[in-house]
Amino acid sequence: MNVFERFSGKVLPADWSWINEPAEWRFDDSKSLQISAPSQADFFRDPSGAAIKSSAPFLHTTLQGDFTIWTRVRVDMKQPYDSGCLMMMADDTHWAKLCFEYFESTPSILSVVTRDTSDDCISGAMDVSNPYLRVARAGNCFAFHYSSDGQHWKLARYFGMNVPNQLKVGVVAQSPVGEGCAVTFDALTITNHVCEDIRNVE
């Protein structure tokens, strides 16, 4: 089920809220979410200690236990690292995101896993302008997948993180070094069904 069917204009259901609500966002007539990421907006905790950023708009709900969430995203890429992401968060120092991002002048799939400090993993270039992103949880194991068509999925990341049963989960728009960018999420589907092996998509 596309949970965005419950949304309209700039009105959120009671179980959804913003961290870093942006000045410009709305749900259009097709129930797509449009976000204008502010300048320098990002979530990243540099392992060198050079920068800690937690300023990107994050629209989220709270999920209990296992889940699968997927979306389709488009990004008006202008500056390096402009991106739209799926994100799950336990707290400020334990979170992870899967992103469609402008990396080295190429639309690409990247992911970040943060356990006190963040890593940065590049999965590769995308050949479409509106890929699908997917996050699955089974206990303390997580799998990140991406797809060009929503049918054939590639595994970007499989990792463990000791986190509570309850997590914030949703979408992020960011422009870490740019002057801002427009991000559109065409749908957002959430289910408590997970594959027996979350590294696979059935």
From TrEMBL:
Pfam families: DUF1349 (PF07081). It comes from the Bacteria. InterPro entries: ConA-like_dom_sf, DUF1349. Transmembrane segments: none annotated. This is DUF1349 domain-containing protein. It comes from Paenibacillus peoriae.
